[in-house]
Amino acid sequence: MGKPTGFMDYERQPWPEREPAERSTDWHDYTIPMLEDEAKKQGARCMDCGVPTCHMGTELNGMTTGCPVYHLIPEWNDLVYQGQWKEALEREHKMNNFPEFTGMACPAPCEGACVLGINEPPVAIRSVERAIIEKGFEEGWVTATPPPERTGKKVAIVGSGPAGLACADQLNKAGHQVTVLERHDRIGGLLTYGIPEMKLPYKVVERRVNLLQAEGITFLPNTEAGTDYSTSALRKDFDAVVLCGGATKHRDIPIEGRELKGIHYAMDFLHLNTKSLLDSGLKDGDYISAKGKDVIVIGGGDTGTDCLATSVRHECKSLTQFDIHEKKGDTRLDGNPWPQWPVVHRIEYGQKEAGAVFGADPRAYMVQTTRFVGDENGHVKEVHTINVKEEFDENGNKTRKEIPGTEKVWPAQLVLLAIGFSGPEQGVLEALGIETDERSNAKAEYGKHHTNIDGFFAAGDMRRGQSLIVWAINEGRQAARECDRYLMGATNLP
Ligand SMILES: Cc1cc2nc3c(=O)[nH]c(=O)nc-3n(C[C@H](O)[C@H](O)[C@H](O)COP(=O)(O)OP(=O)(O)OC[C@H]3O[C@@H](n4cnc5c(N)ncnc54)[C@H](O)[C@@H]3O)c2cc1C
Ligand code: SF4
Q1: Helix extents (H) in 174-301
Q2: Domain 6-138 identical in fold to domain 252-419
Q3: Ligand 2: which of 96, 102, 133, 302 to mutate, most ligand atoms within 8 Å of CB?
Q4: Which of 188, 230, 421, 483 has the smallest count of CB within 10 Å of its CB?
Q5: What does CATH list as the number for 6-138?
Q6: What is the Å distance from ligand 2's center to 466 Cα?
């Protein structure tokens, strides 16, 4: 255990951020480095509990609690407190191939399950995790280590998001020749073309991809499995295939006026923005601009928050985020006890920035969009809404009831739909004859990951639906283990 009285001596101090108004004018990382001494104090707050619920990732009440990659959290908290950074890094990499991605962007379900969090602010676990890996890169401890021997087996991974990258890393470590096919021009999946630059800079993704390449993994960008690389070639060229294509089929709002110009899926807005930013610093103009516009973001989740942060940087005229739910309270409700993920009101980076620029939190709660109205050029000019409240019917099913008299008209020249995803795109799954489940995800048992087709595995969002980076890494690792067992008859992969 770190410092026995650490949790009483030191306050929780999460990773520091730049001032919201100042950072909202550029695309750099919105945080600033944590000092080494501060990271040690945060590690010292860990009580090394007998049953460290923080590291046992699972789902309770439909929400993730604890760390899905089973990070050895109390061990590395202690090692950081003792100043044994290299040993802490080894512990981190044992369970997580990419702690730099989770250290920057994981919502930290571990912290919701931290025992200290029952009556005190929890240990700043994610910040300590990030401090360890950043120190590792700074000190030059993270280097390419190609496998000493090759097995002669060839594996294709479809998709280069966190699931595909973790799976590729593990299978390469086991000595297989791994090729990653990615339909986009850059590697990284939603790490690159979903999460914006200021939250997870591309150079962080690229740094890891360069290491994986130096270790012997082949990356084929601009290559879509099923079209650019035929399914018959996939079967012929490889001994096994792992499908990690994500779950980015858009969910839509089929209401009056949906066809108007100026209404876009959030993912198109975010993807084009990052691509133009990385290609030309936004000089090519190949993106959907929010500049000077009244912007409405429909959807109260993380994708919506990323749209806020991007719109603010475009210098939009006004910014509103619709959330269909009620505003949450500041503390857990009785029905949401520890160690469940705390369902409480949060102010994320994009909301802080919108608040700093426009003087108020951009969210409007319990708002349902009823129709879009356009101008004479077929461009959206208004969004019509009504407030709704959640109720339960006699069968216990949740329904939403409109509240008469709450109709409202909002001016808007740009509307961004951030209401989630309805599963994986089906193209490659259909072409290969992969069975899907009732939610249209690739059907494969969790922990086994083998689909109905011999030698074809599935992992990440493509198997479980849109989720988190940390679950994608967990699934990529497990699919790699099962794929290795399939190829070799036994496996040493964790
Ligand atoms: C806007 C946004 C923000 C998010 N923010 C966070 C966050 O802050 N923290 C967090 O933990 N999670 C976040 N998530 C969720 C997280 O990004 C995903 O759960 C995670 O990336 C899933 O990883 P994956 O590897 O399964 O799929 P993806 O990251 O979606 O990668 C799949 C890849 O497969 C490629 N592909 C698909 N089909 C083919 C094909 N036929 N041939 C070749 N390539 C193909 C796709 O182009 C894509 O690059 C966010 C999601 C979105 C949409
Ligand atoms: S990966 Fe996420 S859940 Fe796991 S320790 Fe890091 S922040 Fe916590």
Answers
A1: 190-193, 202-214, 231-237, 266-280
A2: no
A3: 102
A4: 230
A5: 1.10.1060.10
A6: 18
